[in-house]
Every structure is written in structure tokens, then in C-alpha cells.
Write a structure and sequence with these properties.
Elements: H1 5-8, H2 35-38, E1 46-47, E2 52-53, E3 56-62, E4 71-78, E5 97-102, E6 109-111, E7 114-115, E8 121-125, E9 130-138, E10 147-155, E11 170-172, E12 177-183, E13 190-199, E14 202-203, E15 216-221, E16 227-228, E17 230-232, E18 246-252, E19 257-267, E20 270-280, E21 295-296
Parallel strand pairs: 11-21
Antiparallel strand pairs: 1-16, 2-3, 3-4, 4-8, 5-6, 5-9, 7-8, 9-10, 11-12, 12-13, 13-14, 13-18, 15-16, 15-19, 17-18, 19-20
The protein binds copper (II) ion.
């Protein structure tokens, strides 16, 4: 994607460090545990907590190992039969969405790797020191719903964890955009959330389509990085969805407590990310946040 083009030009990956590929673990029966832990879960919307689900396994073949040094991230999705999946149904315009975030919820990246014919997905990225969560969000051919598998990768270096920023309804980007969040996250409910984009105080009304919408929102639960599916409620060209300043979503979170929201939006040819901390509360009257302040958007590390 556009914002990452610079990083992708970095040269030669010095040598993949293979991450041991575990044999696909047995698929837990849905009844064995809480739905949010095993993840299929239309009911809860939480996923990304397991490296293997419904027989599909995320097999990471190579990942950057040193802080700040661009390296290749390569992975496969193994099918229930153990062979790599090579056919995917695009969701949100792409056959594979790769989300990277450090376990402290900083350093969010949303990448679209390219697949080799044998089913190996590859991209290049640089990561800060620490443990990072890798999420692969995809729909294998023949399966109607997307699924998200996740696993950790370790990056050596001087790890300085970043505290979760306080809740805020406003986020700013480094280049002058302000995004305002309205709505409340109510556990177990498809909660309307609206994000409004302005720049230098003026509403932005010419957002560009990005991933079949005017914005793409990822929500990660603080504490375990459960990955929540968030759906835009309108799409470009449907005759009723304006190109900003407001972008409407339905977000369903499984439990009360803090979440980090990452909004990707495109304007004037550049994809930007605005981040928010939001506390979900069962009382629908509870405001999204009680404190002021703002969170800085982060460009992907190393760019
Ligand atoms: Cu994507």
C-alpha cells in the first residue's frame, strides 16, 4: 500500500530465520472453551487468538529478527490437510490482510503481502524491538467467512514498552489530520461508531476509497490482542455513502474494557492511520471515554 512503498524498497533480506513450523495442532471442539478463546465466533466477533483454527494454521517461515532492520516476513496458511492454501477469496478488496502490532499495541502496520504460486506470502517490513503479534485475515477459497489467525514473533533489541494511551475521542496524525470518534462500544452488540476526518480544522469530504470503503478499522482488545471484526456500513459508489468527513462502522466487541482502534483512511493518495483507545462498557449510556487528550498516529516503524 502507498504509505509503505518506501519501506518495500529496502534491499536484500539478509537471510530468513526460520520460525519452527509446528505441526497443526488439533482443532479444539467449540464446546471445549469459551467462544472468545477459540474464535470462530460470529457471536463474539473475537478472533486472532489462535495460531490454528478449524484446521487452518498460520505457518510463519521468516520474520525480521533485529530491531529496525528491514527483513522479509514470509508465511503460509496450511489447510486442514496440511498443504498450503493457494486460493483465497478476496475480502475488502484483498486476498490477504496482514496486521502487525507489538504486544503493547504500538507500531500498528496493515500490509498486503504478495503470494507465490506455492502459497507463500511475502512482504518486507521493519519492526521495533519486542514481541509482535502477526495477524493473517483471509478467507480460504470455499469458505464463506473470513478468519483471522495470529501468532507472535520476537524481535531482538532494546525493548521499551509503551503504555496504552489514555482513552480519547480525538486522534491526530503527524501531517495535520484530526479524527474524531463518536459512539459507544457495548459488549455483545453491533455498536455504531462514527469516525470523522478533518484537516487543519476543515472537514475532509473527498476521502478516497480504500479496501472497498472510505476507511478500514481494526480493533484489538487490550490484554490479549483479540482481533475484532469491524464492518463499514456503507461503501463508495452505493449512492448513499459520502466520501467523508464521517465514516460509519459497526463494531462488535465481546467484553467490557479497553480496546485500541486503528483507522486506516486514504486521502490525496496517501493512507494514514489514526489510533484511539476506547473503553467498552455494558451500560449503553457510558460515554466512549471520560478523559481528554489525544493519541498520536503512528507511521509504520522504520519508514
Ligand atoms: Cu488489508
Amino acid at each position: 500500500m502507498l504509505a509503505l512503498a518506501a519501506g518495500a524498497t529496502v534491499a536484500a533480506f539478509a537471510g530468513p530465520t526460520p520460525v519452527p513450523a509446528a505441526a497443526p495442532p488439533p482443532v479444539p471442539a467449540p464446546a471445549q472453551g469459551p467462544a472468545i478463546a477459540s474464535g470462530p465466533t460470529a457471536a463474539t466477533g473475537a478472533s486472532g487468538l489462535a495460531v490454528s483454527q478449524d484446521g487452518y494454521t498460520l505457518d510463519v517461515l521468516a520474520a525480521p529478527t533485529q530491531a529496525g532492520s528491514p527483513g522479509e516476513l514470509a508465511f503460509r496458511v496450511l489447510s486442514p490437510g496440511g498443504t498450503p492454501v493457494t486460493a483465497f477469496t478476496p475480502t475488502h478488496d484483498k486476498p490477504m490482510h496482514l496486521i502487525l502490532v507489538r504486544r503493547d499495541q504500538s507500531g500498528f502496520q496493515h500490509l498486503h503481502p504478495v503470494m507465490d504460486p506455492d502459497g507463500t506470502w511475502r512482504t518486507t517490513t521493519a519492526l521495533a524491538a519486542g514481541d509482535h503479534r502477526v495477524f493473517a485475515d483471509f478467507a480460504p477459497d470455499g469458505r464463506s467467512e473470513a478468519m483471522t489467525l495470529g501468532r507472535d514473533i520476537a524481535v531482538a533489541g532494546d525493548y521499551r514498552p509503551v503504555p496504552l494511551p489514555p482513552p480519547s475521542t480525538t486522534a491526530t496524525t503527524a501531517d495535520g489530520y484530526t479524527v474524531t470518534l463518536t459512539g459507544a462500544l457495548v459488549p455483545g452488540t453491533a455498536s455504531p461508531v462514527t469516525l470523522s476526518v478533518s484537516r487543519n480544522g476543515a472537514p475532509v469530504t473527498d476521502l478516497q476509497p480504500y479496501l472497498a470503503a472510505y476507511g478500514h478499522l481494526v480493533a484489538l482488545r487490550t490484554g490479549d490482542l483479540a482481533y475484532l471484526h469491524v464492518h463499514p456500513t456503507g461503501s463508495p459508489g452505493d449512492g448513499r455513502t459520502p466520501a467523508g468527513p464521517a465514516i460509519d462502522f459497526l463494531a462488535e466487541v465481546p467484553s467490557a474494557g479497553p480496546y485500541r482502534l486503528y483507522l486506516d483512511f486514504a486521502h490525496q493518495g496517501v493512507v494514514r492511520t489514526a489510533e484511539f483507545t476506547v473503553v467498552a462498557a455494558s451500560n449503553p449510556g457510558t460515554p466512549v471515554s471520560a478523559t481528554s487528550g489525544h493519541s498520536e498516529s503512528s507511521a509504520p516503524h522504520g519508514h
